[in-house]
Amino acid sequence: MATDAPKPLVLSNARVIDPARGLDAPGSIVVADGTILAAGPEAANQGAPYGADIIDCGGAIAAPGLIDMCVSVGEPGAEHRETLASASDAAAAGGVTTICTMPETDPVIDDPALVDFILRRARDTARVHVHPLAALTKGLEGREMTEIGLLQEAGAVAFTNGHSSVRNAQVMRRMLTYARDFNALVIHHTEDPDLAGGVMNAGLNASWKGLSGVPREAEIIMIERDLRLVGMAKGKYHANLISTSDGAEAIRIGKTRGLDITAGVSINHLTQNENDIGPYRTFFKMSPPLRDEDDRQAMIAAVADGTIDLIVSNHDPQDVETKRHPWAEAEDGAIGLESLLAAALRLYHADQVDLSTLLGAMTHRPADRLGIDAGRLSAGAPADIVVFDPDRPWILEKRAIRSRSKNTPFEDARFSGRVLRTVVAGRTVYEYA
Amino acid sequence: MALMTATHSHRDMPFPHRHLLGIEGLQPHEILGLLDRADEAVEISRQVEKKKSVLSGRTQINLFFEASTRTQSSFEIAGKRLGADVMNMAVSASSVKKGETLIDTAATLNAMHPDLLVVRHHAAGAVHLLARKVGCSVVNAGDGPHEHPTQALLDALTIRRHKGKIARLTVAICGDIAHSRVARSNIILLNALGARVRAVAPSTLLPSGIDKMGVEVFQDMREGLKGADIIMMLRLQLERMNGAFIPSVREYYRYYGLDAEKLAFAKDDALVMHPGPMNRGVEIDAAVADGPQSLIREQVEMGVAVRMAVLEALAAHLPNH
């Protein structure tokens, strides 16, 4: 991001929603020097700062910019799939103002110098905020712990083993225990690797397709194991991508036991199920696998009641060379930054999750969990804002996708809800033409 | 053996598919149409003059990513008897990096303008993927544990020629159903034609959700064979034999090997089938495999006939026809 100060900005005639303080009212947002001066009804009566750009939002919603805590980028090592620049373009178009990058790059982000590299590259090329997640174990191999303290000092906001689980319970226990001393959050993929061993949700659908199954129990067992270890270690833990009703139930119980735990779900598991795979369409191959409709409904209910704290895109760019294979040989992963908000609004339009809860799961709740200053419209907060019309229809066309990789499961999907403007630190980084 | 003739022929029913990727998606009358055509092909194959010219000038490529002498030669003979120019292409799985060759090979072959592509691949869905990338008709000759449609058709043809019908017969499919494309295609086909299908196997070799796949499930082979008209044995792959799915070959043979004693639980006129190649002494006793109730050799003959029928039916959709 450029360092010269942006012009002051007034977003007027908006429906201002700030889930962190339960605000949903007509008003304005006044921004100067990259921070919010005022937001809400009270801001409407304030004059505009000298020289401000005044934007009439036409009654559209203005909310905190989204925070996506699970984004894979190909930089370094696979820039042909996605760079920090292209990912940030996609994020901006999707109303996402902060991304947390997964450490599963080449090389793996398990060294403070590499955290520094990401931050420098982001500063020079990205239009949204970038916070690196560092590897929990060296090389993501699940054996030796990384330098939690040094990585944190370098700017890593949390620690994760990426899309693989730490198989060894003793290693996991030590990681949780050591990370506690640095108040570091451990983000974990919850799939028992031995039991998982398959390529789509286990069950009748997989059986007819002749594909090996990933049983739901692979997730449930790993969550239950982890929660026991969290109890021993008194660590700070986040189950990154849960997909089953029993997994959500385990989280619910863990929270009542007073553990410091949270859980996330990918937008795909809230809006799709295994039937969407159709005839071996590999853009729907992901980890954890898409489950059945009962589990999808359970995920939605768990977001609505707060058991699931966060919604992420689990953006994972894959190119033709990794996706155009027979199902079992294709890589996992789907892009999702550009469609995150629009897809999430399907739950709002279906009357399943209210707007404040939905936006909260992508704004102040991830910010609070990561301990970053974002996700709010309060005075003094960074001016990261998304303006969107929740009802405007549009179609996601492949040629319009900004990500370098086009592996979206939402190709040609119809959405209601269009991002009109994205503001990062007071500067407009995306405007719907 | 009397040749049973169907009361009314489906021979000339149109076959509205460009590819044969699986039994799934075929209507019962389309299956019967293929079987009627195959009955004719049996007659042709038994003549001195075996050649037809329906595929004359056409190019058929047998693309096998997984070695299979019998299926490949069966398709080769079928194509040649219909007058096609047949080329066999074996792609060794170890010599190429996974999957890459599938699309690359498809594109390369497509540029040579084949009319028919017969594909065997070790991954489920691979043949579907390939069919989307080429301009010719594609026949699935087995894709991983998914489907093997011509095997199910040849099994049905063999059964129908002996029992005169498929409907209401009790067919026991025995063995490694979890990993078997033969089992999946047969379960779909036999259900479509009204047979009663049983699955007989240890639970570790049954796919999850088997009870919802249109079969009656038995872990006790003797129970599963009681009153059966047809016994279909499946091959047990070597890599499943040693501890991962079953503890040992000898334990498997004891409980799931088809020998004379277990065969006696089926109907007296029950017939024994096996898609081959057999592991004698693993899933089937040599005396049963070569005994009077065995149709195993005849299945090979029917295989050629069914593949002729399929190639001929697909030829109707080839351009300039």
What does this structure look like?
The complex is a heterodimer of chains A (433) and B (321). By secondary structure, chain A is an alpha/beta fold. Helix content of chain A is 30%, strand content 24%. Chain A has 15 helices and 18 strands. Chain A has helices at residues 41-44, 84-93, 112-125, 148-154, 169-181, 193-196, 204-209, 216-233, 245-256, 267-271, 293-304, 320-323, 340-349, 355-360, 364-370, and strands at 9-18, 23-32, 35-40, 53-56, 61-64, 66-71, 96-101, 129-135, 158-160, 185-188, 200-201, 213-214, 236-239, 260-266, 310-312, 385-395, 414-424, 427-431. In chain A, strands 1, 2, 3, 4, 5, 16, 17 and 18 form an eight-stranded mixed sheet that branches. The longest helix of chain A has 18 residues, at 216-233. Chain A is globular, with a radius of gyration of 21 Å. The two termini of chain A are 22 Å apart. Chain B starts with 27 loop residues before the first helix and ends in a 6-residue tail after the last helix. Chain B is 36% helix and 14% strand. Chain B is built from eleven helices and nine strands. By secondary structure, chain B is of the alpha/beta class. At the A-B interface, helix 7 of A face helix 3 and helix 4 of B.
Mean pLDDT of chain A: 96
Query: How is the biggest beta sheet of chain A arranged?
Result: 8 strands, mixed
Q: State the shape of chain B.
A: globular
Name the structural class of chain B: alpha/beta
Q: Sheet bearing the most strands of chain B, described?
A: 5 strands, parallel
Number of strands of chain A: 18
**Uncertain spans of chain A:** none
Total helical elements of chain B: 11
**Quaternary state, please?**
heterodimer
Task: Give a short synopsis of this structure.
Chain A has about 425 residues and is α/β, with parallel strands linked by helices.
Which structural traits does this protein have?
heterodimer, A: 433 residues, alpha/beta, eight-stranded mixed sheet, 30% helix, B: 321 residues, five-stranded parallel sheet, four-stranded parallel sheet, 9 strands, 36% helix, globular
